[in-house]
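Anyone opening a protein record will find just a pair of labelled lines. The record below illustrates this layout.
***
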Amino acid sequence: MCTADFSPVERNAFLPCLLAVTLRAGCAALALPVYAAATSAVAFAATTATATSTLNTVKTVSATPVNGQADTITVVAAPDNTFRAGGDQLVPAFLDGQIANGGRLGFLGQQDANNVPFSIVGFTSKLIQDQQARSLADVLNNDASVQSGYGYGNYAQTFVVRGFSLDGDDISYGGLYGILPRQMLPTEFAERIELLKGSSAFLNGVPPGGTGVGGTVNVEPKRAGDEPLNRVSLDYTSTSQEGGAFDLSRRYGDNNQFGVRINGAHREGGTAIDDERRRMTMGSVGLDYRGDRFRSSLDVGVVKQTVHGGRPVVYLGTATKIPEAPSATSNYGQPWAFTDTENEFGMLRAEYDLTDAWTTYGAVGANHTHEYGKYASPTLSGDDGDATMSRMTVPYFSDSLSSQAGVRGKFSTGFVKHNVNLGMSTLYSRTRSAYTLTGTTISENIYHPVNVSEPMTDLYSGGDMGDPGVTNRVRNYGVALSDTLSILDDRLQFTGGLRRQNVVVYNYDYTGAQSSSFDQTKVTPAFGLVVKPWDHISLYANHIEALQAGETAGTQYNGVLVSNGGQVSGIETSKQNEVGIKADYGRVAGSLALFEIKKPVGVYTPSSNGYVFGNNGEVRNRGLELNVFGEPLFGVRINGSMAWMDPQLTKTQDGTYNGNDAVGVPRYQMVVGGEWDLPGLTGLTATGKVIHTGSQYADQANQLKVDDWTRLDLGVRYNMNLPRNTIIWRAAIENVTNEKYWASATGGYLTQGDPREAKVSMTVDF
């Protein structure tokens, strides 16, 4: 066998083994050249994000004596970074380093996807850089199970996972809710963005915003690596956005136990949408300590973002059909509309190994949010594009404190191995807000937008605009216990667990009086099974639930009194069942999942006192997901996914819409992305991605249908590996054909897709 038969990546892992064999065989004449190649492979592995190298230890081998003299050669490689599931250590990235086959499962910590009965994937900072992803939506559009849009009346990014909404308030940071900026999330401070598809109340607790039934997203902070990092980036985005970023890290101490990672970025200018301007400034510091038994980290950050003259969503109003999307660059917003957000956040984590088998852990985080915005979204008044618009001004402040603590360990009972985890989590948040509203004082047409002066007369108002009062308090507390039992060398694993969750919600009107309250406790089970009939195949199944506070009842329905009007309808318990198969062949990995999620919704039921409101309605989503990623051919990398959905309204008010599709959920989505290292052109890589989303309905009656759409992205990357530093050039065009389309009908309103946009960046490591 000759190493020429192997790809370069395979040779890097194979040569050290070949070295040991040849030395022990006494081939001294061949040993030194192979040794030189092996040390080159070690250096290569230490400076790339590839996780395939097997050089994890210090190896000493002796050559057979030649001319009476024996030589001893010591190969010093990278320290042992073998992944240990359950803690904060990240799952190794797959092959080229853009995707990690696993991520954080709430209080169960970081887990390899092949060893758990849940669907989870991680997108790395390398993918973020290579795709020039500026926001969370840019990253999550790599998975067909996720759809993105804007929030109700503002520019907040919202998502739909497995057919159910996920708001920015419910994105976790290192496993803690309530810490991250809630409307728009930059990517510069993220090492991983991890997508858990499916319900997760047992794993994560109750999200503060009450979404996340179909899936959640977790962001992992950056950490200092073993090698020093000095990185500076410059970027440009059409039509006039210019930006720059820096990323610095060092480790200190006799054993590199102290780490520092500093990130900063600034970007501002006009976007590809007419007259829309955005500005983002962020900074973060990550400190960590790695001891023999004690590990800790501290992450703090500040993010300031502004959107001026942004293109808003479109409400359907009295339209009887979905209007054709306007020009891709058209802006039917107003120049005086804006949002300013500022967030300060921080998180402290620690874990201590009590013994080799038992570890205690804890984390605490906090966030302060300050937002101020003037919003104006058109509401259609017909089918010709005519619309009315009002101005709503909202100051918004929130403070949150989140914590987590527990103990995990392993033991055996006979031939059965146990991995147990006992944990608790808390979340407290307080929101202060006020508003003024002008009423429908503006008329325009979304196909022929005009700028008008800001209306100044307030028709409605609530609260003190200069000193907003408290409008909402949330307190969540949960205790969870799990045990993963495994036999047959971990080829058969069963996970069982319970979480006791308490949800407390207080709502206040703008005078400060309490308008409604909610305090309930629910025990949530979770069960999962993993079977590994072969080394590369995992079969799995799970039952897991989601918890949210229910909807608030109206005081009347059809003119009749509602006996529990103004009260929250109790805890909504959504239930998921899922089965699937996962495969990992080293160069290519993938998964196939079949799931069903049933979510209760509030309906009014006749009673002796009129009507009573309760969680007796239901939405049932069934789906099939297919994911494939890896490098099937050397130099050719793929990341593809497809999702087929049956989003059915099964129990609606008076059965009116039973059998119809749920609002804003396409029946199928597809994402196919890839990279090709161009042969004969060292360092040059072509990139591309196709996103296709099927049609969806914007109303429960299924009379307003949004057409399907397709987007094409193309790009190129050039890696200049110079003797003293590395320079990487990246250029891409998103929506190459400048397709005009409605990207989402989430919430029953329309979010238009972004126009053609050019991105160019240069990154220098020195």
About this structure: Residues 600 and 618 are 4 Å apart (CA to CA). Confidence is low (pLDDT under 50) at residues 1-79.
